[in-house]
Amino acid sequence: GMDQRAERSVHNSMVEVTCKEDSAQYFLITPKLLPDLMYHERMKVLCVNNGEWLPEEQNLGDMMAMIDGYLASR
After folding, report:
1. Are 18 and 26 in contact (CB under 8 A)?
2. Buried residues in 45-73 as b, exposed as e (16+ CB within 10 A)
3. CB atoms closer than 10 angstroms to residue 38
């Protein structure tokens, strides 16, 4: 695996290349992401939860509520 510096550098390069006007669609599937990565307005982030246990429903599908909660905790 890569260290955090290399992982961040690769992620930023992928964002720069794949979010151009004429670029193709790209999927990044990963078990984890570093915090505070660079994101572009042309990106769409989908979070998939899978496993034997999931917490009680708490607006899990409401990504904006999750982001607002994260920002409020910072």
Report:
1. yes
2. eeeeeeeeeeeeeeeeeeeeeeeeeeeee
3. 13
Residue range 5-49, pLDDT digits in tens: 999 999 999 999 999 989 888 888 887 878 888 889 998 888 887
Please choose, from the candidates 42, 46, 53, the residue with its C-alpha nearest in 3D space to the C-alpha of residue 19: 42
Task: Give the pLDDT confidence score for residue 10 in this predicted structure.
Answer: 92
pLDDT (0 to 100) of residue 58:
65
- Evaluate the CA torsion angle 74, 62, 19, 25 in order and state its sign: positive
- E strands of the chain, at which residues? none
Are 71 and 53 in contact, with CB atoms under 8 Å apart? Answer: no
CA–CA gap between residue 29 and residue 48 (Å, rounded): 10
